[in-house]
Specification:
- Chain A: InterPro entries: Rossmann-like_a/b/a_fold, Universal_stress_UspA, UspA.
- The complex is a heterodimer of chains A (about 140) and B (about 140).
- Helix content of chain A is about 55%, strand content about 20%.
- Chain A has a five-stranded parallel sheet with strand order 3-2-1-4-5, sandwiched between helices.
- Chain A is α/β, with parallel strands linked by helices.
- Mean pLDDT of chain A is about 85; it is low at about 115-120.
- The longest helix of chain A is centred in the middle third of the chain and has 22 residues, at about 55-75.
- By secondary structure, chain B is α/β, with parallel strands linked by helices.
- Chain B is built from six helices and five strands.
- In chain B, helix 1 (about 15-30) links the parallel strand 1 (about 5-10) and strand 2 (about 35-40).
- In chain B, helix 1 (about 15-30) crosses helix 3 (about 55-75) and helix 4 runs parallel beside helix 6 (about 120-130).
- Chain B is globular, with a radius of gyration of 14 Å.
- The two termini of chain B are about 25 Å apart.
- The relative contact order of chain B is 0.23.
- The chains are: A alpha/beta (about 140), B alpha/beta (about 140).
Chain lengths: ~140, ~140
C-alpha cells in the first residue's frame, strides 16, 4: 500500500497541508502517517505549564485533533507517530527511512521567527528528504 | 482534487523525473498536463551560438522537451506547452500565480548546477513564492 508522510504541528499551515495530503491519499489509495515532533522548547513549555504526564499527553493529542478529525471524515487510514528532537532533522530522518510516495509539508509552522529568516524547517526538509516533497502554502 | 497542474521543465535529468510524477498525477486525476519551459537569456545566447539558423534553434528546444512529450504520448496524457522568456525563477512564479493551478511540479535541481550548489536556487525561489502547493521531485 502507498504511504504518505504528513509532518504536522497542529498549526494553521499544517491543517491545510493535511487537506492536500488527503486529496493525494484518495488519488493513490494511500495511507497517511502523521508525524508529530516534540522539540526541546515545546517539551519544556509543556512540562512547566502542566504538572502531570497525563495532561501533557492529552494536550499534545489536542494539537493534532483538527487534523485527525479531517482524516476521519475523509475515511483515510492513518497512523500517528510522536518523536522527540529537532523538527527538521527528525522529520528528514524519519522520511528517508520509510517508504513514502510523498511527503506533504506546510510551508510555515509554529516557529515564526525562524520562518521569517528562511522558511527554515520546511526548506531544510524539502532539501534533504529524498522523496517527492509537496509544500503547501 | 487536482484540476490543473503545471510542470516546469528544462530538459534536465531532474525535470524528467518531475515529469514522471506529474504524468502520474495527471493520470490519476484524469486531467491534461500543462508544461512550462522557460528560455532564459543564457539559454538563448548559447542556442544562438551553437545553432546556425532559427529552425535549428527551435529544434534544439523541442529536443529538450522531447523525452517529456514522449512520456505523455505513451501514457496518453494530453499536454500543452507554454514557452516563456525571462529569468527562470521569477518567470515561473509569475506565470503560475496568474493562472490558478492546483499544483506546480518542479525538479529540485535544474540545468544550472552552480546556483544549485549554493541554494537549490530556482526551485527554492519558486517554492517560496508560488501561491499554490509546490511538489519538489528529487
Amino acid at each position: 500500500m502507498n504511504k504518505i508522510l504528513l509532518p504536522s504541528d497542529g498549526s494553521e499551515h499544517s491543517i491545510r497541508s493535511a487537506e492536500k495530503a488527503i486529496e493525494l491519499a484518495k488519488l493513490y489509495e494511500a495511507q497517511i502517517d502523521v508525524l508529530y515532533v516534540v522539540d526541546g522548547s515545546t517539551s519544556k513549555k509543556d512540562v512547566i505549564q502542566h504538572t502531570d504526564k497525563y495532561v501533557i499527553e492529552k494536550r499534545r493529542k489536542e494539537r493534532l485533533k483538527p487534523i485527525e478529525e479531517r482524516l476521519n471524515q475523509a475515511g483515510i487510514t492513518y497512523k500517528t507517530h510522536t518523536l522527540h528532537g529537532e523538527p527538521g532533522p527528525t522529520i528528514v530522518d524519519f522520511a528517508n527511512k520509510g517508504d513514502y510516495e510523498y511527503v506533504v509539508l506546510g510551508s510555515r509552522g509554529l516557529n515564526n521567527l525562524q520562518t521569517m529568516v528562511l522558511g527554515s524547517v520546511s526548506h531544510k526538509v524539502a532539501k534533504r528528504v529524498d522523496k517527492p516533497v509537496m509544500i503547501v502554502k | 482534487m487536482f484540476n490543473s497542474i503545471l510542470l516546469c521543465a528544462d530538459g534536465s535529468q531532474h525535470s524528467i523525473r518531475a515529469a514522471e510524477k506529474a504524468i502520474e498525477l495527471a493520470m490519476k486525476s484524469k486531467i491534461p498536463l500543462e508544461i512550462a519551459y522557460v528560455i532564459s537569456g543564457a539559454t538563448s545566447k548559447s542556442d544562438v551560438l551553437y545553432c546556425h539558423d532559427k529552425s535549428d534553434i527551435s529544434q534544439s528546444r523541442q529536443a529538450k522537451l522531447k523525452m517529456i512529450q514522449e512520456q505523455c504520448f505513451v501514457k496518453k496524457i494530453p499536454y500543452q506547452i507554454h514557452l516563456l522568456r525571462g529569468e527562470p525563477g521569477p518567470t515561473i512564479v509569475q506565470f503560475a500565480n496568474k493562472q490558478a493551478y492546483d499544483c506546480v511540479i518542479l525538479g529540485s535541481r535544474g540545468l544550472n548546477p552552480f546556483q544549485s550548489m549554493v541554494l537549490g536556487s530556482v526551485s527554492h525561489k519558486v517554492a517560496k513564492r508560488v501561491n499554490c502547493p509546490v511538489l519538489l521531485v528529487k
